[in-house]
Amino acid sequence: MKSPRRTLLLAVWALSMLAAVLVIAQTRFIADLSAFMPKAPSTRQQMLLDQLRDGAIARIVLLGIEGGDNAERARLSRGLVDKLAGNPLFSSIQNGDAATAERDQRYYFDNRYLLSPAIDSQRFSAAGMHQAVGDLIDDMSGDAGLIVKQILPRDPTGETLRIIDQFGGETPPRTDNGIWVSRDGQRAVLMVQLTDSGLNTDAQAHALDTIRMAFDSLPGHPAATRLKMSGTSVLSVSARNTIQGEVGRLAVVGTVLVVCLLLLIYRSVVLLLLGLVPVVSGALVGIAAVSLGFGHVHGLTLGFGTTLIGEAVDYSIYLFMQRENGSHPAGFWRTIRLGVLTSIAGFAALLCSSFPGLSQLGLYSISGLVTAALVTRYVLPVLMPANARLNDLTPIGLRLQQALDFLMRMRWLMVAAGALAALVLVVNHQSLWNRQLSALSPISKAQSALDLQLRGDLGGNDMRYVASFTAPNQESALAEAERVDAVLRPLQRNQVICGFHSPSQILPSLAAQRARQAALPDEAQARGNLQLGLAGLPLSADKLDGFLTDLRAARRQPLLTRASLAGTSSGMLLDSMLIKRTSGFLVLMPLSPCGQGTTDDRLDLNRVSAALDANGLGQVTVIDLLEETTGIFDSYTHEALLLSSLGCLTILLLLSLACGPRRAMRVALPLACAVLCVVALLHAGGVQLTILHLVGLLLVVAIGSNYALFFVSDSGGDQRKMETSLVIANLATVMSFGLLGTSSVPVLSYIGSTVAIGTLLALVFSAGLTRIRSHARHP
Are 147 and 160 in contact (CB under 8 A)? Predict the structure, then answer.
């Protein structure tokens, strides 16, 4: 190659790598839930995202203090609350202490005439009082008898009970030593609400570290006690840390394995370093392309990128083996080019996915593999010293040729295996797929079990069913919530739902408060109506002076605001339902199904939505969060099946145009057998398929097509060396993806295990079904 061209090639390559490095230096790397969320969410999907980002699910941290005795745990619980109080990272810290409980009780009792939904113009008429007082006296004989006796002198119309009724169905946490404890009393429990968004994993990680440090710094902290933490934010941070740790481990171990393999084969440090040039170049360009295309790079993309080491090194292996012939046959590069095109066709299907994680993998793979191939074709020959020689692999080649000859004799057995695998899949197609998005979660079973225990200890409600809407300001949000309340109450009476929570139950709109205040009679009118209303009831008016005094005060009291809830646990509940955002407020209203905790616990969302629509509240979205996440996963799966099918058809079309239909079918047959056998083996091992297994199968086709193309094509040169290079390249790929399969992150392990098994089978089936007879007789 002439010197000016060599210089130009090296300059273009060096400048490209420098540009990629500069882009990567400015890249934001993330490891949050965004890889699993739709790019362009629907209204219902957006509500799910809002819940994950801003809802109570995303920002609540559940704490448990274990070890020591009850008194010790109570002391540490109070100490932790004191340590965290006032920290801007936390909007609320609750442990069920008596002072907070008293503030909650005082808030609802002192403000009952502004909070009670029962108050209207007829509530304090003579007839209204007679009915209300009579109902309260009747309640005295029921479960609420003790409360009725306490409140009756000041609240004879039972407004306090009306407020309490709105929160019925809840199981409050157990209390001991003045704090919340677990059901078995062996753990103190607390609840912390974080300030930052649920998708701001870095901020949440900092807040969680602050909690841990605060606990560790408590005076007299005994070694026997320990802090347990859970909640969506804890699990998200744990998942991010797991992904980050796995990416680092996979990169180091994967590099070491491939380096050892190449050193064993090459016996040359120079060739080893040259072989890694396409790998590094492809990785740099791949990361830079994803950064430019998406504005960030997800950790899962980096984890998957470690497999580029095994795949991109294939090209240099082919090059070095062919260079031993003293030339680079045109057929060799033609086959490489076709193999790259088929890989691009496969990965291009991922680019169109609405699953951001798959889109990033597609862009990374295409840009990385194209770069690796170009660098191998044009840069490596320039960098390669003239005296560089590959270790003599003739003995290995002879043994491999014998093995490949044997595989050819097994071709009918291979076809039978493919047919049997297809039959197994047809028979068991109903049980092949796992429809739960949680199947992709890196959260351990122990972490999930702890989360369930702490939620049970705190009496947490199931947030599966939620009604949601947005509003431009707090007042309109509360007013809209009151309109929704008016629709939901009849549904509750008719057992369509068994309960609901609304921010207006805790903080009514100013308009509602004014209306209730205006409905309160003046003192003279109230006294007269009371005398008439008590007629025939076993209660005298002279015992209700406190009621008249409170009624008079309520007519003049200031209206309630968010500040009125300071220091109460109800403030945390309000903040979980009335969420301030940069552009207005998000309102989340949990709905409780009847038969909760039983097999018949589904809520008829259609009836709820129809009732809202009939009352002009069509903008309120009602969803089943569990079903919605499953629906997202199903849509991804169906989309991936379609795109994968299109990708495979595109690959087949490319092969037909380049090789002819007959040869294209010979290439496709071993790939189909490999895919069928992989799925059958996974099913036999009790593994249900996810969207990531589907991606892995697409990679099997994209990578395996290279093996079949070489076996079926006459690319020139020493065929034995070509076949040796194929086996070595396959071994490198299987090692890289096999390592990925050991990852504790399902997203990585599913792809890795699928591709490792699939590419190995693709080589075996390609050797048996496409290796032409002249190859087998090659000396």
Answer: yes
What pLDDT, on a 0 to 100 scale, did the predictor assign at position 520? 93
- Cβ neighbour number for residue 161 with a 10 Å cutoff: 19
Q: CA 301, CA 299: separation in Å to the nearest integer?
A: 5
**Rounded-to-integer distance, Cα 275 and Cα 655, Å:** 28
DSSP conformation class of 65? E
Q: Is 387 helix (H, G, I), strand (E, B) or coil?
A: coil
Q: How many CB atoms lie within 10 A of CB 624?
A: 18
Cα distance between residue 68 and residue 79, in whole Å? 15
CB contact set of 38 (below 8 Å; sequence gap of 6+): 45, 354, 355, 356, 632
What ranges in 197-306 are assigned the alpha helix state H? 201-216, 232-266, 269-294, 299-305
Instruction: State the Cα–Cα distance between residues 658 and 525, nearest whole angstrom.
Output: 96
> DSSP letter string over 289-327?
HHHHHHSSEEHHHHHHHTHHHHHHHHHHHHHHHHHTTTS
Question: Which residues span the domain enclosing 25?
Answer: 3-30+267-431+628-776
- The answer to whether residue 556 sits within a structural domain is no
- Pull the structure tokens for residue 259: 């380096």
Quick one: which of 336, 343, 338 has its CA closest to 378?
336
Which letter does DSSP use for residue 543 in this model? G
Q: Which residues does 599 contact at the CB level (< 8 Å), separation at least 6?
A: none
pLDDT at residue number 37? 64
Q: Which residue numbers in the chain have pLDDT < 50?
A: 1, 598-599, 716, 774-779
- For residue 187, give the DSSP letter: E
Helical pair 691-712 and 330-351, crossing angle rounded to 10 deg: 170
Look at residue 772 and tell me if it is in a domain: yes
pLDDT of residue 41: 63
Contacts of residue 422, Cβ cutoff 8 Å, sequence gap at least 6: 676
Closest CA to 759 of 311, 256, 250: 311
Given this model, what pLDDT does residue 668 score? 85
Give how many domains the chain has, as a whole number. Answer: 1
Residue 704 lies in a domain: yes
CA–CA gap between residue 256 and residue 251 (Å, rounded): 9
Task: For residue 365, count other CB atoms closer than 10 A to its CB.
Answer: 27
Evaluate whether residue 9 is within a structural domain.
Answer: yes
